[in-house]
Structures are given as C-alpha cells and as structure tokens.
Amino acid sequence: MRTSILAWSALSGLVLGLFCGVALLAAVLAGLELAAPGAARALERWRPLLLALCLLVLPLIGAVLGYLEGRLKLN
C-alpha cells in the first residue's frame, strides 16, 4: 500500500511536470514566432536546451515533488 501511494504520487507529479513543460515550450515557441526574425534566429541555438529543460527537467522535478507529497500523505 505504501509503495503504491508513493508510486502514484510520483507518477502524477511527472505527468503534471510534463504538462507544465509542454505549456511552457509552446508559449516560448509561439513567442519566438511572433518575434522579429533576427531575434528568433539568435535564439535558435538555445532550442535544444529549452527542449531538454521543458521535456526532461520539469517532469523530473514534478516527479520528485509528487514523491515528497506522497511521503507527506503517509506521515
């Protein structure tokens, strides 16, 4: 029972972090499309870092926070 609560809390945090990452990525990419062509071209080299941040780091942070929330539920 304890493991299941921790696993589901971590999974829900991962999914929430993924949703936030995709929303942030969409907002930044839409902003770049609306920006001047020179500004979009200047930020082109940061795109892989932005993808890694939004699709890897934010979901991992969400999973850790979800796990911590699950530990709080168990106490």
Descriptive notes:
This protein has one domain. Helices cover 89% and strands 0% of the residues. It has helices at residues 2-34, 37-42, 47-74. α1 packs antiparallel against α3. The longest helix has 33 residues, at 2-34. It is rod-shaped and about 55 Å long. The two termini are 13 Å apart. The mean pLDDT is 90.
Low-confidence stretches: none
Tally of strands: 0
**Into which percent range does the helicity of residues fall?**
over 70%
> Per the principal axes of the C-alpha atoms, what is the gross shape?
rod-shaped
Overall mean confidence score, pLDDT = 90
**Cα radius of gyration in angstroms:** 16 Å
**Terminal Cα span:** 13 Å
